[in-house]
UniProtKB/TrEMBL annotation:
Lineage: Eukaryota, Metazoa, Chordata, Craniata, Vertebrata
Keywords: Lectin
Protein's organism: Pleuronectes platessa
Annotated Pfam families: Tectonin
Similarity comment text for this entry: Belongs to the tectonin family.
Name of the featured protein: Fish-egg lectin
Domain of life, per lineage: Eukaryota
GO molecular function: carbohydrate binding
UniProt KW RNA-binding keyword: no
Amino acid sequence: MQIDAGMGKVVVADKYKRTYFLSGLAVYRLGRLGMKHVTVGAGGLWGTCQANKVYKYVAGDFKLAKGLSMHQVDAGGNGQIVGVGSGSYNAYCLKEKTASGFYGRHTLSWTSLSRKMMYYSCGPRMGCWGVDKSYRIWVTKNISPTNCRTSGWTAVSGPRMKMIEVSSDGNVFGVTTTGRVYQRIGITNHSRQGTRWVYVPMCMSVRHLSYDLKNLWIVTTSGLIMKCSC
C-alpha cells in the first residue's frame, strides 16, 4: 500500500496495516501494532495508524505519541517531523529536538505551518514539497528543524498529483491522480521549484513511491513493489 525510503532504509505498510523493513531480498515485521503509513529518516521511524494516531518506533515497537492526530507523517528532513492533520488537513511540524528526544512518554507539541495539505514531504537539502486537497503542488525553500519556521510557499504548475516525495539529495518525484509518475527537473539552490516535469514511464499504474540513494521504489496499484535504479 505504501513505501518510504530514507538513509539507506526501506519500510513498507501492507493492506492489512502491517509494517515491514527490507533487508536484502526479505522483509521483516516491524513491531506489533498496525500502521497505515510509515516513514523513516533523520528524525527516526514514525507511523500513523488507521485511527490517525501518531507513533514512533522505540526499542523494537511502536510507541504512541500523544498529541495531534495525523493522516500522514514524514521524517525525511533535517530531523524535524512534518505531518498532515486528520480532518483539518493542516500542515504541521515537530521540532528536531522534540522528535529525536521522544521515547514514548509525554504529549507532543506540533507547530502549525498555516497551510493545508493532503500529502507532505521534506528533504534535508531542497526544502519541502506538498500536495493540497485540490491536487495542486507547493514547495517551500526552507524549513528550520529547530523552530519549524518556513520561507513561505510557492505554487508549482504541473499535473494533478495525489502524492509527492523529495529525497535526501533533492530529487522530487510525484504520482498523479491517474497513477502516472513524474520527476521534477532543474531544482537548484536558487530555483527550488525547478523548471519542468518529466514523465517516467512505468509498466503499471502506480499507487505510491519513494526515492533514496539513486533508487526509486514503487508500489503499483496492484500491490507489487518495484525498485528502479537511477
